[in-house]
TrEMBL record:
GO terms for molecular function: glycosyltransferase activity. Keywords: Glycosyltransferase, Transferase. This is Hypoxanthine phosphoribosyltransferase. Gene3D superfamilies: 3.40.50.2020. It comes from the Bacteria. It comes from Henriciella pelagia. It catalyses: IMP + diphosphate = hypoxanthine + 5-phospho-alpha-D-ribose 1-diphosphate; GMP + diphosphate = guanine + 5-phospho-alpha-D-ribose 1-diphosphate. Pfam families: Pribosyltran.
């Protein structure tokens, strides 16, 4: 039964997603030895954080998991241009390496804000990772450090990503018109 789903084109299947996360964990694991915190950018990055943490654990890497709830899109498909902190991290990151985990890197505002927020709290080093990177996302200094796949220039849903709160539970990444 498909319920009342709109037309969603699959851009990355569940199987391909898991393979990409494993490949990412292979690259990240050697960088994360020692005192690291992993910060889940709520809400959308939750499924990705969960699978990436498991992939890292299988490689013997166990960062301290925390969360930072940031909001800038609300129910719109375009960034409001402002990033709001809805809830802050709980554990100190002073002197620690910080891996910031997000689902999608689009205008880059959210990760730029998160990076500076955590550096201000005394992080020793910040690394950013996103599952999907949009084609127009910032390059150079403002780029995300690691991403799992290059997304098409379309609005994405699934695997944490929403359209006005819906479709976060889809096990694949899809695109809507
Ligand atoms: O690169 P940007 O243009 O900043 O977009 C990326 C951010 O947008 C979404 O967050 P949103 O504000 O929609 O909150 P959500 O995670 O609760 O969906 C997404 O989860 C990223 O955090
Ligand atoms: O393509 C997207 N889909 C869902 N949320 C988003 N936040 C930024 N870009 C997107």
């Amino acid at each position: 039964m498909s319920g009342d789903l709109p037309k969603i084109d699959v851009v990355l299947s569940e199987e391909d997603l898991m393979a990409k996360i494993d490949a990412l964990a292979d690259v990240l694991a050697p960088r994360l030895a020692g005192d690291w915190s992993a910060i889940n950018i709520l809400v959308g990055a939750t499924p990705f954080t969960s699978d990436l943490m498991k992939a890292l654990a299988r490689r013997g890497i166990h960062p301290v998991l925390d969360a930072l709830w940031l909001e800038s899109y609300r129910d719109e498909r375009e960034s409001s241009g402002r990033v709001l902190v809805r809830a802050d991290i709980v554990r100190s990151v002073r002197g620690r390496g910080v891996l910031i985990i997000d689902d999608v890197f689009d205008t880059g505002r959210t990760l730029a804000f998160a990076r500076s927020h955590l550096m201000t709290k005394g992080a020793r080093e910040v690394i950013t990772v996103a599952l999907a990177r949009k084609p127009w996302a910032p390059k150079g200094e403002g780029d995300v450090d690691y991403h799992a796949f290059d997304a098409p220039g379309r609005f994405l849903v699934g695997y944490g990503m929403d359209d006005a709160g819906k479709y976060r539970g889809l096990p694949y990444i899809g695109a809507l018109d």
